[in-house]
């Protein structure tokens, strides 16, 4: 299964790293048992091949009419560039804010009104950042078909926000699969899986730590 292959890849290179007994602190102050840095996938040739070919397959399967791929800034840019090259498609990216000089672009690369776009993201948690990108592209006249991403937490808030905005996402793997594979391969204890899924269901409730 592709989701299990990607899960093993991410665990091996510690792009996704579980530490339930010594949680990481997110910028929001939330104590998290998981750390995710999918930029590391770019540094491992085998993992990079699995990820980029997987993203291409997702796009061909779910969005065959795509005309342009757009990366999120900054983590999605490299993946969008590789995917665009593999598919022979134009590529661009969306800045987190408009430039304060030159043409003051927020969308980099050529995008014509009405073009069918797929957004390439590295991970989705609450969905806020990718939805900002979708809004910017829609305001520019693009027809956003949906999103492809490497990894999704599957958090309730993220799923609800994507649904409310009518944005479809397809990920190569997800939190549930990675937690299960991590237990099977000895990265965490089997009894930790329940705690991890409790965190996924409600990151603000720290009862999972017990």
How would you describe what is shown here?
With about 210 residues, this protein is an alpha/beta fold. Helices cover about 40% and strands about 20% of the residues. The protein contains seven helices and ten strands. The strands form three sheets. The protein has a six-stranded mixed beta sheet. A two-stranded antiparallel sheet has the order 1-4. A two-stranded antiparallel sheet has the order 2-3. β2 and β3 form a beta hairpin. The chain is globular and about 50 Å long. The model has no long low-confidence stretch (mean pLDDT about 95).
Unreliable residue stretches: none
Structure class:
alpha/beta
Query: Whole-Å distance between the termini?
Result: 32 Å
| Main beta-sheet annotation | 6 strands, mixed
Report the average pLDDT across residues: 93
Number of helices: 7
- Range of helix content: 25-40%
* Content of β-strand: 15-25%
For the secondary structure, the number of strands is: 10
- Per the principal axes of the C-alpha atoms, what is the gross shape? globular
Which sequence of strands runs across the widest sheet?
7-6-5-8-9-10
Q: Would you spell out the secondary-structure blueprint of this structure?
A:
Elements: H1 2-12, E1 16-18, E2 24-25, E3 31-32, E4 34-36, H2 45-62, E5 68-72, H3 77-87, E6 91-94, E7 107-108, E8 116-124, H4 128-139, E9 143-152, H5 156-164, E10 169-174, H6 175-184, H7 192-201
Parallel strand pairs: 5-6, 5-8, 8-9, 9-10
Antiparallel strand pairs: 1-4, 2-3, 6-7
Helix pairs in contact: 1-2, 1-6, 2-3, 6-7
